[in-house]
Amino acid sequence: MAQRKITVIPGDGIGPDIIDSALQILDKAGCDFEYEFADAGLAALEKHGELLPQRTLDLIEKNGVTLKGPLTTPIGKGFTSINVSLRKRFNLYANLRPVISFKGTQARYENIDIITVRENTQGMYSGLGQTVSEDGCTAEAMSLVTREGAERIVRFAYELARKENRKKVTIVHKANILKSTSGLFLDVAREISAAYPDIETAEMIVDATCMKLVMNPEEFDVIVTTNLFGDIISDLCAGLVGGLGMAPGANIGDNAALFEAVHGSAPDIAGKNLANPTSVILASIQMLEYLGMQDKAEAIRRAVTAVIEEGDRTTCDLGGTHGTTDFTQAVMERL
């Protein structure tokens, strides 16, 4: 059987360091992938004069599965978010952000296990109708929600809940105020939920959701919501388990999937062997699960869990004094 090819985008800042860590661990676990490397972000702009070279797009399409480090989109007019561009280009409509408590972190909670399923291509982030008046006093943007888009993401969330033996899906909305867009999302979600009587359904307004996530996070299992709310909620959930360094992300469509560290590129610590690679290691676990390699995924998860719990070779953000390479080595020894 031919080796499975994976597109790898090392990214900017600490990206190359943490991606290297994840690849070493995948190899040690015996995943036997062939990696095809591609540039994006500032690294690509410097080398090729563009943020997203055609070769990168071609490799993402050809291999279907991509592991990606953090990218920097330059601030200023004329630069579109690279992550948004990739989601639209490959119709990666489902954004999956799981958070799980790890013993040994400095998180405030102990038993968190929540997946946020966020619609990834529509809503306020659709980029439509963005105008600023000539006098600079009025700005407008358009939110787009379609029945097809809402159906697709809600069904995805319920199918995920069923596959992972989860008991509850919470539909998060703001239909009391955004009666058209959020109202349509809620109506469609209610219709879809009726087809899943084995799974408990809850409905919650987004502001109440944020409050309850802080007060009683144990109430939540799977959350499904629109793009803007999902962006905010998934970061809030990351805060429950110790921050963005502990949270991976998957962007999934019908023909492609992209797995990533969800934190920034942290240029201030790039190349200093300080970065915590956990986020991208967890993203690689998501990738293995997507590919049906559950045994390898579980082995790596157990190793990471043990190293963080023991705490004697962790990075500074986890309360330790070690660097990226020591942490990586500790995980590989566990494997």
From TrEMBL:
Q: Which InterPro entries match?
A: IsoCit/isopropylmalate_DH_CS, IsoPropMal-DH-like_dom
Keywords in alphabetical order: Oxidoreductase
Task: Please name the Pfam families in this protein's record.
Answer: Iso_dh
Isopropylmalate dehydrogenase-like domain residues are 5-331
**Molecular functions per Gene Ontology:** isocitrate dehydrogenase (NAD+) activity; magnesium ion binding; NAD binding
What's any GO biological process attached to this entry?
isocitrate metabolic process
Keyword Oxidoreductase (UniProt): yes
Q: Say if the entry is tagged with keyword Oxidoreductase.
A: yes
Family per record: Belongs to the isocitrate and isopropylmalate dehydrogenases family.
PANTHER family assigned to the protein according to its UniProt record, in alphabetical order = DECARBOXYLATING DEHYDROGENASES-ISOCITRATE, ISOPROPYLMALATE, TARTRATE, ISOCITRATE DEHYDROGENASE [NAD] SUBUNIT ALPHA, MITOCHONDRIAL
Return the protein name: Isocitrate dehydrogenase (NAD+)
Species name: Desulfoluna spongiiphila
